[in-house]
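Ticket closed. Logging final result for Integrating conjugative element protein.
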Amino acid sequence: MKSLVKRSSAAALAGLLLCLAFVPAAHAVEILRWERLPLAVPLVVGQERVVFIERNVRIGVPPTVGEQLRVQSAGGAIYLRASAPIPPTRLQLQDVESGALILLDIAAEPAKAGQPALEPVRIVEGDVPATRYGEPAKPADDDAERTVPAAKRATPVAVVLTRYAAQNLYAPLRTVEPVPGLGRVNLRRGLELSTLLPTLPVRAQALAAWRLEDQWVTAVKLTNASGRWLDLDPRALQGDFLAATFQHPNLAPAGRAADTTVVYLVTRGHGLAESLLPKLSPIDATVNLPPAAAAGQAEGGARHEK
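Final structure:
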């Protein structure tokens, strides 16, 4: 009887070990913390590596490695596969909603004998200060949170918008600090801007616009159309603007490198199109009226006086 129990226990243990031998090992995931420093993601030629980022991003790939690197994105995951060795190269991941950038430094090397497959990578946000530029200022305690009806920002919205627009046009994209809630908006095609600076010989063209809360900022390119220097004064702008900032204080004569600049126009409640003054028609409609009506009188006014 005892021998039968021993044989049964041994058989059960052997079966358990056999089952454990066929249980696949769980894949480890390497955690990378994004703290505004480039993240190293090495690759092995011929092996696909997955990067989990849990957000919708655009992927910027240098053209020098476009043929050696296959990049696919789906459901918050990025799939990287190198078909040939790749020297150290930087990829840019840009959040579609906020515009935030994450930098990846990749390099692909041939597989070594006995080298295990690289584990997937998960990118998480690092520790950031409590209040960042453009974010709502946090109340000091719970009582303050209950008494304040709306969160106030540490920086005025107009300043945040103007700074963000200037960085997008004049600074490298990696230096643009993301602002929660700030997004790009579409511009009306063929927007007429002849009434913006009617006293100056400049050509104006709307470039881009962004919105945060109930305020818009529109970047407008100004080009000198004359042969003299022009001083730019915000008081010469015509329209309903909350704030206006010139990238440069003046314009060089036409044809020089400094004959172009940008003005950032901040509006509230609507975009730039609804903040411009109406354009006066160059055609005088009174030329088609009878002489008496053009003069502001009815046709029968003279006979009435008689």
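The radius of gyration is 32 Å. No further action required.
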